[in-house]
Amino acid sequence: MVTGITHSLTLAFAFLMTALASGVSVFFVMRRLERNKERADADAAQSVLARAHSEAEDVVRRAQLETENVRREMEIEFKEKSMREKESFEAEKRATYKDLLDKERALDKRRDALDLQEDELRKQEHSLSNQEQELRRRLDRQTELNRELEVKVEEQDKALYRTLALSKDEAKAMLMKKLDDELVEETGALIRKHETNAKKTCEETARNILLLALQRYSSTHTAEVTTGVVDIENDEIKGRVIGREGRNIRTFEKVTGVDVIIDDTPGVIILSAFDPMRREIARKTLQRLIEDGRIHPSRIEEVYRQTCADIQSQIVRAGLDACRETDVNGLHERVVAQLGRLQFRTSYSQNVLSHSIDVAFIAGMMAVELGLDENLARRCGLLHDIGKASDHEIEGGHPKIGADILKRNNEPYQVVQAALKHHEDLRVADPYTVLVAAADACSASRPGARRETLENYVRRMEELEQIAMESNFVEQAYAVQAGREMRVMVNSQLTTDESAAKICRDIVKKLTERLQFPGEIKVTVIRESRTTGIAK
After folding, report:
1. Percent of all residues in the chain with a pLDDT value above 70, rounded to a whole number
2. If pLDDT is split at 50, 70 and 90, which confidence band does 367 have?
């Protein structure tokens, strides 16, 4: 039994060992299979990595090729751009050189003119020196005469005391009367003598004055802007315009402030005034009076008032036409009216409204080339000189006046700056101001566009009228006869004949002290009283 049990145990142990060996064999087989699988996975991963590395190298090579191509294209483009800029610089250099040559020639001409003026001034200085010496000699002679006169007066005084039983006051009064009579006669003779000598020694100055006057009036351009012509059917109308004892023509000149020239020229009446608006009002007024046939003082004033109202309408139409021509919209009606007034203003004989339209178009074209707003540039150019419509009424320069007007009427910042700074020589941050300044220079520097002689003449006429209007008693003041005569109308209720004479002397004194002018200026103060009644 023990042997059987042992045999059973032996069999069980053998079976167990066999099973164990089988399990170990299976384990090792499984491990080998796992190692083989891992090795295969590693080989596959290594193959994928190799392919990825190869593809990355291909991408890098292609990127390098594209980069090289881009670099070459940029080098070519840079070289072409450099060539273009070089050509542009050379062209600009040539233009600048030509401009400098032109300016140098102009400066040479101006230098020659200044040399001639300097020689002329030396001659005048020498002449004035001679006159001064002559006046000193005359003054010394006058001093000697005064001393002799004092001696004679003392002798007569003593003789009177000896021969007449007069009191000291009576004798003094008698001597003063006699002395006054003698001085009046001697002063008149001395004045006539000085006038004769002045006429002899001032011929050269008179010739210069004539040359200046001929230069001012010989130009057709100047004649067109300072005179107006009214055509008439026959010369009988001239007599009606003059009126009985000249009352019609005096009333017309007083109301309109122009000088009416009626001469032997057939079929025309000439109106002369430095203010274009005043001259246009006078021309239309005279045309209407001639067409109506009724010419008398009250009718002249009535037609003048109607014409003034029509001119205001014409001013508004001119402003609207300028806006339509330059395609500038949305302006305030006050700005349009100020713009229309520029039609009757000149700057160095150039019409300011036409000049503003030119500047608007030039600035607009330059803005297009620079990629800026064309409409805004035109608006700036059209309104840059708007202050000239009121610079004779408001104190200050036209840039500041124009900027204030535009600011009050809510114009854009660029427009206000263009009006304020288009004459200033400084760095301006706003490009539209630079455009307007350049366009303004282009319009003004065209050959024949401006003439300084007329502007100086008009400025002198305005100064004459302003000096006369400083008095509180003066209602109207007109400079006529090319500034050789001033007609001043005073308030008849606030003045008398004596005070009118004093006002005349004060105006003459101010003109002499504050202005320099050739020849002489005749000042006429008019004090007129009117009485009006209405019959019912």
Report:
1. 76
2. confident
CA distance 203 to 207: 6
234 DSSP 8-state letter:
S
Work out the burial of residue 296: count CB atoms within 10 Å of its CB; fewer than 13 is exposed, 13-18 middle, 19 or more buried.
middle
How many whole angstroms separate alpha carbon 36 and alpha carbon 150?
A: 156
DSSP state of 533: -
- Does the pLDDT value for residue 237 go beyond 80? no
Measure the CA–CA gap between 82 and 482, rounded to whole angstroms.
61
- In Å, the largest CA–CA distance within the chain is 216
CA distances from 388 to 343, 351, 392, 402, 423 (A): 11, 11, 8, 7, 13
Contacts of 228 (CB under 8 A, 6+ apart): 270, 271, 272, 273, 279, 280, 282, 283
Radius of gyration of the chain measured on its C-alpha atoms: 50
Range with top average pLDDT, 26-35, 354-363, 417-426, 517-526: 354-363
Distance CA 319, CA 326 (A): 11
Tokens 């309104």 sit on residue: 383
SS3 228: strand
| Dist. CA 388–CA 352, nearest whole Å | 8
Is residue 436 a contact partner of residue 359, using CB atoms and an 8 Å limit?
A: yes
Contact between 297 and 251 (Cβ < 8 Å): yes
Model confidence at 520, in pLDDT bands (50, 70, 90)?
Answer: confident
Tokens of residue 404, six digits: 């204030």
**How many whole angstroms separate alpha carbon 233 and alpha carbon 270?**
14
Overall pTM surpassing 0.90 (yes/no): no
pLDDT digits (tens, 9 = 90+) for 375-409: 888 888 888 888 887 766 677 778 888 888 888 88
